[in-house]
Amino acid sequence: xxxxxxxxxxxxxxxxxxxxxxxxxxxxxxxxxxxxxxxxxxxxxxxxxxxxxxxxxxxxxxxxxxxxxxxxxxxxxxxxxxxxxxxxxxxxxxxxxxxxxxxxxxxxxxxxxxxxxxxxxxxxxxxxxxxxxxxxxxxxxxxxxxxxxxxxxxxxxxxxxxxxxxxxxxxxxx
Length: 174
Fold this sequence. Notes:
Layout: E1 2-3, E2 7-10, H1 17-24, H2 27-30, H3 39-48, E3 57-63, E4 68-77, E5 88-94, H4 103-118, E6 123-129, H5 133-141, E7 145-146, E8 152-153, E9 165-172
Parallel strand pairs: 5-6
Antiparallel strand pairs: 1-2, 2-3, 3-4, 4-5, 6-9, 7-9, 8-9
Helix pairs in contact: 1-3
């Protein structure tokens, strides 16, 4: 568990499923991330991100003031068959109702602090569609910088899908 001033990041529970599915099924939230998820897709996402070993995994982001699940974030191994394979990758998603309140930044600062304390990673990377200006701005607020040599076409998408054009950012160990 990771605690910040306004948030608790903890492993997701069965009770979090509906809130997380609501986030993943929101077309505005998913516009630059991929397709809207069905309930089965959401369950598969939870299972995939549960535990990657070495303590890596994604957490439910819970707002302390009302115990609402407002997001999902964490660290995982970089996607195989991409230029970030072998790296530790950061990721986050926040419910639309919690946008523009600093929750993603606060959650990811907590995740990164955990990562530096509990891994030997020389850096953490994050990826997003080139067109995703909000995520790119978030990466820069975290202190990440663009690594154009590691930009790639993501194999999860067809070549003509604008989400396939992925940029890579990195944050070196402090």
